[in-house]
Amino acid sequence: MARTRRQALTRPDVVEAALKCIARDGVEGLGVHRVAAELGIKAPSLYNHVSSQEELRVAVCVAGWSRFADRAHAALRSHGVGPGAIMAIAKAFRAFVKENPALYQVMSTVHVEQSTTEFAQVADRIFYVFSQALAPLNLSQDDFIHAIRALRAAVHGFSQLEVSGQFGMPYDIEKSFEWMINAFTHSLETRS
Fold it and tell me: How far apart are CA 139 and CA 162, in angstroms?
């Protein structure tokens, strides 16, 4: 992705290059020198677009969550609201983790302040998806927040175990995942 002198480098270019480096090289690819090399520039030039390695990590994290939000919205659109939507969103989340293990590692380990404008917009999109999927259950506000956290934790844990090859027993992993999400959904239905 070497650039010519006439092409102006933008922050989105830097983030896109970082995403490519992570996809190719794993988490180790998220370094200023590797991203600069991907762009065909010297590392100090990268600091015209991100002030530090940490800012680069945050920008990549936000971009990853934005891509997940796109995936979750598509799942919601294809399944409507209710239990089918919960399963669809959970499957979309799991597929995203499996397809982007290094990016997801960054997303799940880099802390981004909720007040960051860029991240707040992405978080709102994700919250909307979960709120639409869970709306038919008529949960209290507290139960609603607990449900979102529990669903995220369940899918995160399951996906991380799966990606690292921890499910060794000769049982269908897909059936185990569906069993978990169905049990989760049923427990919510009994609360409403």
Answer: 30
**What token pair was written down for 3?**
């650039």
Whether pLDDT at 4 is above 60: no
CB–CB of 3/40 below 8 Å? Answer: yes
Three-state DSSP class for residue 81: coil
Q: Which burial class, exposed, middle or buried, applies to 12 when counting CB atoms under 10 A from its CB (0-12, 13-18, 19+)?
A: exposed
DSSP 3-state of 154: helix
Q: Using CA atoms, how far apart are residues 42 and 11, in angstroms rounded to an integer?
A: 15
pLDDT in tens, 54-98: 999 999 999 999 999 999 999 999 987 767 899 999 999 999 999
Cα–Cα dist 168/10, whole Å: 45
Report the SS3 class of residue 167: coil
Structure tokens at 72: 């979750």
Alpha-carbon span 136 to 156, nearest angstrom: 24
